[in-house]
Write a sequence for this structure.
């Protein structure tokens, strides 16, 4: 019952879009099948593959370095590697294009120096989009893996070594399977984000399923066909979810309390490699974009768009959504643990699917669904329920879109607890309420903090759903930025972007502080 | 004189307060960028005392919203860029017809819906820009000519996803038929010096930096860049000025009354106010666009680019063919 309720907003959105399937649109489909879909599908899959591999490599390496090794500067890098999380993908994209384009400062300098007119590179296309998305999304893998690595004991690996496995084989046969659930959780977030990505891929000129959905609606004027096309994306998200589920099923592992993991001291060579590599990564993924934004903002453009009300709205919606989603997430995750029936488990998994649906599609479906609901309610004389254009409607949209960002850290943190702990409490006569209050919640605290901040950061960066569902004249920083980037007014977009990044940085700082204390 | 002004102001205030209840607000659904619209709305509130609620989103989203909200909707006015969006909104039945002698007198026939469901508020010209170093104006003639081989590797275009290019290609279809239009677009694609850019600024900057020699942009982007950076080695060329070549492709920002508005009189008054001379001057100065009211001259900076003959067909014909244009560009490999 609760499971069904948790899915209700998503189902409402799907119902809103389902109307589309009743409208015949056969004249659009042959065109889509011949000229749009093959290219869009290949691009989407290629993008997800590259981003997936990239995030795994970068995220795992950095997590291992900072959670399991010791070298000078580790404490700094430990939290600094999270910084790119504060940058919205669309901001990274327009900064990268501004910086690396033919007319940008880097190539202009090159031309002046070399006297040649040929372009060094063209910052458009799949490669660039994949690289930039990797830089934006690797923190998901880093964050989840790091949290697990900090606590996971070395018992199993040590046992494997005593049984005669070489270090490499022990890593491959024992360590990797142990890390797989956390890796899949982070990777799942990164891949679903890639699937739903619109702003950055369209700036880099890559046609994906998501851009095809937009184009079908806004260019071919066919909302039905766009909704049908979106189902293809949804199918992909479902497939991904299934894969993740498979990778994680049959696994229960709990933090070993006996042996604190040992940190490996890196030799001088490896240490400088670690420092150099991570510095370079941060330079490209964070420092360069910030410098370019500062340069644009210093021209004084866009000052009018950076007022306090937009900042206040941004913080407010971030906080509200964090509270709502984490509360809902807690309920869902604990239920998921106890749920016996496959249907209930399936429904609970479905509730977090919105993470892979492009914001505009999801918001449009929800808007139409809510309006349908409102007029039905009015029709049966249940008074005037006005949900559209209220904060409640916006929160509903954000709930559908980002629930997964709340449940993943919570589930990870719950997964570390031994059921024996709760059995013991029960044998000692603690009731259900007392077990929850005195045992579960305190133990879940780090997960709750991580989930709240992740949700807040995501929500504050979110653009399309906020744009569509917000109350009249209610701007967030992301909406302000959008108003400029859509017209290519990057100078003007820089200042609100910087403020948004600053707000995100505060959230990340909190996240790190709380994790350290936890 | 002063006493007269005070009296006039008092009378105007009285008139407004009589016709409009103080708690009335005008709800506007708009696709015009807020920084380019809010100053206009502020002026309206200041002059009439009528408050405004603004909802900005994509035109198609707004259209669907007006329809789905139906009788319970709050929208009074819909404002959107691009004739295609306006055409689509009327096709879907989101706009109500307006009977206004004032508007009929001000807005030229080509710049409004034949049934009066929307009226243009500003016009935007899509023109050729060229490098002043590497291209002589004499080498340029028409949009169609940019498909010629002599421009191989010298052309920069914005993405085909932008509605401005979709309506330009729709006009090509209207003028030449699909087959010839596709040949032209394929010619453009073959001539590209770089992948299509995401915005018009990038096209102008690329020409200034030397990546390409010619491009197609809306004039106000050029105005903004010159306004920020001073003189650049790029100039505007008004194409298709010869006999039988049609004229410069012009697109519009237009406004109409939302189908279920509860206060259509107020909505109509707002649209008439937007086309009045003082407001048109405001529009002309805010972003280098061309006024629709023929009695208002463009901003001096815009006037300095010279005069041109606009395309002589009704602007809604572009809207009708826009979906066909999108498909054509997909076929031709224009991304």
């Amino acid at each position: 019952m609760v499971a069904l309720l948790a899915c209700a907003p998503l189902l409402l959105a799907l119902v809103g879009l389902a109307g589309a399937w009743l409208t015949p649109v056969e004249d659009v489909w042959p065109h889509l099948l011949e000229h749009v879909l093959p290219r869009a599908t290949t691009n989407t899959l290629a993008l997800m593959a590259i981003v997936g591999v990239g995030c795994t490599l970068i995220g795992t390496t950095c997590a291992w370095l900072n959670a399991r090794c010791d070298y000078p500067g580790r404490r700094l890098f430990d939290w600094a590697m999270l910084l790119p999380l504060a940058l919205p993908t669309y901001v990274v994209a327009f900064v990268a294009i501004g910086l690396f384009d033919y007319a940008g400062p880097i190539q202009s300098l090159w031309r002046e120096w070399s006297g040649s007119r040929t372009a060094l590179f063209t910052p458009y296309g799949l490669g660039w989009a994949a690289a930039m998305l990797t830089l934006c999304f690797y923190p998901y893998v880093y964050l989840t893996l790091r949290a697990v690595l900090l606590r996971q004991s070395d018992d199993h690996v040590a046992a494997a070594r005593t049984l005669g496995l070489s270090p490499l084989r022990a890593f491959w046969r024992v360590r990797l399977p142990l890390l797989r659930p956390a890796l899949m959780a982070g990777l799942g977030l990164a891949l679903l984000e890639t699937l739903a990505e619109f702003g950055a891929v369209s700036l880099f000129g890559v046609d994906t399923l998501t851009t095809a959905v937009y184009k079908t609606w806004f260019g071919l004027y066919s909302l039905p066909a766009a909704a049908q096309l979106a189902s293809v994306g949804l199918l992909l998200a479902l497939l991904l979810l299934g894969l993740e589920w498979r990778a994680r099923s049959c696994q229960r592992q709990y933090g070993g309390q006996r042996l604190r993991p040992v940190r490996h001291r890196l030799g001088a060579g490896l240490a400088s490699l670690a420092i150099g590599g991570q510095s370079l990564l941060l330079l490209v993924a964070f420092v360069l974009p910030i410098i370019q934004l500062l340069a644009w903002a210093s021209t004084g453009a866009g000052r009018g768009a950076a007022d306090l009300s937009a900042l206040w709205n941004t913080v407010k919606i971030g906080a509200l959504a964090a509270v709502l989603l984490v509360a809902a997430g807690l309920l869902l995750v604990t239920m998921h643990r106890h749920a016996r029936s496959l249907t209930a488990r399936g429904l609970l998994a479905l509730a977090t699917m919105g993470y892979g649906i492009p914001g505009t599609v999801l918001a449009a479906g929800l808007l139409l669904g809510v309006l349908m609901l409102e007029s039905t309610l009015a029709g049966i004389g249940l008074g005037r329920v006005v949900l559209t254009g209220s904060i409640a409607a916006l929160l509903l949209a954000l709930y559908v879109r980002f629930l997964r960002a709340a449940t993943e850290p919570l589930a990870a943190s719950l997964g570390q607890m031994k059921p024996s702990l709760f059995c013991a409490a029960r044998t000692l006569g603690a009731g259900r309420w007392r077990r929850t209050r005195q045992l579960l919640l305190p133990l879940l605290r780090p997960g709750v903090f991580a989930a709240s901040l992740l949700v807040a950061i995501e929500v504050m960066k979110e653009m399309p759903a906020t744009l569509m569902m917000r109350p009249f004249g209610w701007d967030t920083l992301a909406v302000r930025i959008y108003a400029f980037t859509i017209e290519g007014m990057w100078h003007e977009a820089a200042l609100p972007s910087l403020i948004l990044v600053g707000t995100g940085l505060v959230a990340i700082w909190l996240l790190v502080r709380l994790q350290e204390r936890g | 004189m002063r006493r007269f002004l005070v009296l006039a102001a008092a009378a105007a205030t009285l008139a407004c307060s009589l016709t409009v209840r103080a708690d009335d607000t005008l709800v506007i659904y708009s696709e015009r960028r807020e920084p380019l619209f809010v100053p206009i709305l502020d002026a309206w509130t200041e002059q009439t005392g009528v408050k405004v609620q603004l909802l900005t989103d994509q035109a198609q989203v707004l259209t669907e919203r007006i329809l789905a909200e139906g009788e319970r909707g709050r929208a009074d006015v819909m404002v959107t860029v691009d004739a295609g969006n306006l055409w689509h909104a009327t096709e879907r039945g989101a706009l109500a017809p307006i009977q206004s002698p004032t508007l009929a007198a001000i807005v030229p026939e080509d710049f409004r819906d034949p049934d009066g469901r929307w009226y243009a508020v500003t016009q935007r010209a899509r023109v050729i820009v060229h490098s002043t170093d590497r291209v002589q104006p004499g080498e340029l003639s028409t949009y169609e000519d940019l498909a010629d081989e002599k421009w191989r590797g010298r052309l920069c275009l914005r993405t085909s996803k932008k509605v401005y290019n979709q309506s330009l290609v729709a006009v090509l279809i209207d003028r030449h038929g699909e087959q010839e239009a596709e040949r032209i677009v394929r010619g453009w694609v073959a001539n590209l010096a770089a992948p299509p850019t995401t915005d018009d600024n990038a096209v102008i900057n690329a020409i200034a930096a030397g990546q390409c020699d010619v491009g197609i942009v809306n004039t106000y982007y050029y105005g903004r860049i010159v306004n920020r950076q001073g003189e650049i080695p790029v100039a505007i060329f008004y194409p298709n000025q010869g006999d039988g070549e049609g004229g410069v492709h012009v697109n519009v920002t237009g406004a109409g009354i939302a189908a279920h508005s509860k206060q259509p009189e107020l909505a109509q008054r707002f649209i008439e106010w937007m086309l009045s001379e003082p407001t048109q001057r405001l529009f002309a100065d805010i972003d280098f666009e061309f006024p629709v009211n023929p009695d208002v001259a463009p901003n001096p900076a815009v006037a300095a680019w010279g005069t041109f003959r606009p395309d002589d067909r009704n602007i809604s014909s572009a809207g009708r063919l826009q979906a066909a244009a999108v498909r054509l560009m997909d076929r031709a490999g224009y991304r």
